[in-house]
Known about the structure:
This protein is α+β, with helices and mostly antiparallel strands. The chain has helices spanning 5-10, 12-35, 60-63, 74-79, 88-94; strands at 42-47, 55-58, 68-73, 101-108, 111-118.
Amino acid sequence: MNNDPELNGKYLGTITKDFALVSETxxxxxxxxxxxxxxxxxxxxxTKQESPLGTLLINADELALEWHIYASYLYDFVExxxxxxxxxxxxxxxxxxxxxxxxxxxxxxxxxxxxFVPFPED
Length: 122
């Protein structure tokens, strides 16, 4: 659950660029997921294709972004067997403060990984 070095070179630039444009939307969505007690662990899926995970939050085509962004949460990932039930505790302990960091799940051409990106300071 660490930021993968491979992610830095190939993906981080385009993810960061799109993230900067939508960070306030993601911050608010994270807050709402937690406030409504849907989950204490919001996850945002960044993918260039359609995803069966989560609910489409931001369509890349509508905002001229490179990544579509879907909103999800820990239990959905467990239910869909992306995270094993016996790894839930590990995930929860590695999860960073959602008021300060956004949990992203990057999916691209067979590559999948979690990354935590800090929200811009106000």
